[in-house]
Amino acid sequence: MGLINPMAWARSKRTGPHALRVAVGACLLIGCISSSFAQSEPPLTVPSTGSLPGPANAIPLEGWLLFPSIRTYSLYSDNFFQSPTARISALGFGASPSLTAQWSNGIHTTTLYGNIDRQVYPTDNAINTFDRQATATQTYSPLPDLTFTALGDYTHKTISSGLTNSIPSPIATSTPTPTLLPNGNTQLPNGTIVSPTGQIVGQANPGLFANGTSVINPYDQFTGTASVNKIFNRGILTLSGSTARTDYENPGTPGFTSNSFSESGAVWLGPVFYAYSNGSFALTSNASPNPNSSAYRVVGGIGTRQFGLFRSSLYFGHQGSDVQASGKAGGDVYGGAISYYPTPPWTITASIDETINVSSETSASTQALAIPVQTPLQIPLSASTRITATSLQTTYAISQQWTTSGSLSYTRIEYIDSSRLDNTWSADVTLSYDIWRNMTLAWEYQFASILSNAPFTSSKRNYINMSATYKF
After folding, report:
1. Dihedrals φ, ψ of 343, to 5°?
2. Dist. CA 199–CA 145, nearest whole Å
3. Does residue 119 have a pLDDT over 50?
4. How many helices (H) and strands (E) does the chain have?
5. How high does pLDDT run on average in the chain?
6. Alpha carbon distance 178, 198 (integer Å)
7. Backbone angles phi, psi at 398, to 5 degrees
8. Which of 34, 44, 239, 259 is most buried, taking the most CB atoms under 10 A from its CB?
9. What span, in angstroms and rounded, lies between the C-alpha atoms of 245 and 257?
10. Residue 371 C-alpha from the chain's centroid
11. What is the arithmetic mean of pLDDT over 333-341?
12. CA–CA distance from 463 to each of 163, 190, 347, 383 (Å)?
């Protein structure tokens, strides 16, 4: 499948000179404001109206477009739960059918998504999983530069992490059509991510890493989200709010409710530089015995559009948390990223993030500190730490059919006023082949390592996944 022109695709929603100016301006603005390293700059939340109906394998049905697909895969891990003491080697097989249904008249867009994921492990039936997700998204765009979005989601997971996220992650669904991503790039149905100028800048990979020690602890999560996005003459602003309820099947694990609010704003300072700010705030109401808590992370920075073969950004901010009857924690965050484009199909991005958390909390937290980098180790809010996280990512389009991507991350966790030191490594390599227009083969290898001078913490994990995805 060849690259699309995001400009032509964006113009399919509206016609006329004003619509064209808005579409071009929005794509240029968002594309240049977008982060080359999404974790260091929380992405601008662009509404999902970018996922417009298109000819990509759609089945029409009374005004709706249906996008059914099925993914079958096999996987192997020599330490399935990233455990330091009880390693479980597992060979498994999985199948994941999904269906996206979409209706749009250019102003109103309704998107329904459903997915079932079943994994079977012949050598250890105890870790078999049966996950499912159902999402309904409604968008309303009374003007080309103003969009309101409402989303409702139900998710069931069989395996959960040892700690919950202090700041909830946004709901993610598959991409049946060329879709405008939150950072302004476009993701094609085969997973290739291109910039507004059509340059390949990334590849969407399956999330195989289990952050921290994972356990079999099934839960149901119900989420509702509302957001508004406004594009101005020289800037963009997105506000969103979300509420989520999580209930565990294990009666010994209390459920909780999370309410979160986020903002993303950016403005051009000139033809090259832009300023931006991104913030998230979350309130978690825990069922007994866990106390209520709050957490936030706010950053602001300056970045550049691509100049020559490079693009860069720097940011500074603060993060903190407050756990009822336990205490507070917080500290500065800062970092930056630089991207290098040696050729149109090849992208290299290097980034660094420093997160400081000085804690006065008196009890061990059940929530994890928000670290904007992929790492196999979770850090509780109650730990006083200085975390330095670095990452190197690359994507290369070998041809229209073959694409490869890789990442290498190193994280150093220093415990303040303690001799404890943790180091983590994670690596990922993916190769995908569009064997037909409707079918993609993918091979992925992931490695995660935790090296610590604390007892019962160090561990290693290898993970291999081979899959075939067919879109009807």
Report:
1. -140, 160
2. 24
3. yes
4. 2, 25
5. 83
6. 12
7. -65, -40
8. 34
9. 4
10. 13
11. 95
12. 22, 22, 25, 29
Beta bridge partners of 75: 92, 465
Cα–Cα dist 162/25, whole Å = 44
Q: What are phi and psi of 63, to 5 degrees?
A: 90, -10
Amino acid at 318: H
- DSSP assignment letter at 21: H
Note every long-range contact of 405-412, with CB atoms under 8 Å and residues 24 or more positions apart, other chains counting.
405/202, 405/203, 405/205, 405/429, 405/430, 406/430, 407/374, 409/373, 409/374, 409/375, 411/371, 411/373, 411/375, 411/377, 411/387, 412/387, 412/388
User: What is each CA distance from 219 to 44, 130, 167, 312, in whole angstroms?
Assistant: 29, 11, 18, 40
Backbone angles phi, psi at 115, to 5 degrees: -150, 140
For 51, the token pair is 């996922």
Distance in angstroms (rounded) separating the CA atoms of residues 336 and 37: 8
Q: How far is CA 129 from the centre of its chain?
A: 22
Query: Sign of the CA dihedral 268, 269, 272, 277?
Result: negative
**C-alpha span between 264 and 276 (Å, rounded):** 8
Query: Exposed, middle or buried by CB within 10 Å (0-12, 13-18, 19+), for 408?
Result: middle
pLDDT digits (tens, 9 = 90+) for 230-260: 999 899 999 999 999 999 999 888 999 999 9
Q: Is 330 left (phi over 0), alpha (psi -120 to 50) or beta?
A: left
**What tens digit of pLDDT does each residue of 54-68 get?**
445 688 999 999 999
Q: How many CB atoms lie within 10 A of CB 427?
A: 15
Per-residue pLDDT at 414: 97
pTM of the model: 0.84
- List pLDDT tens digits, range 403-438: 899 999 999 999 999 999 999 999 999 999 988 888
Query: Could you tell me the two tokens for 104?
Result: 């749009």
Residue 280: CA count within 13 A, CB half-sphere: 23
Which residue in 464, 440, 445 sits closest to 93, CA to CA? 464
pLDDT at 57: 67
Closest by Cα among 190, 61, 53, 75 to 446: 75
Cβ neighbours, 10 Å, residue 117: 19
Tokens describing residue 305? 């559009």
Q: Computed over its alpha carbons, how large is the radius of gyration of the chain?
A: 22
Give CA 57 to chain center in angstroms. 25
Two tokens at 391?
């990452």
- CB 161 within 8 Å of CB 212: yes
Map tokens 């720097």 to a residue: 314
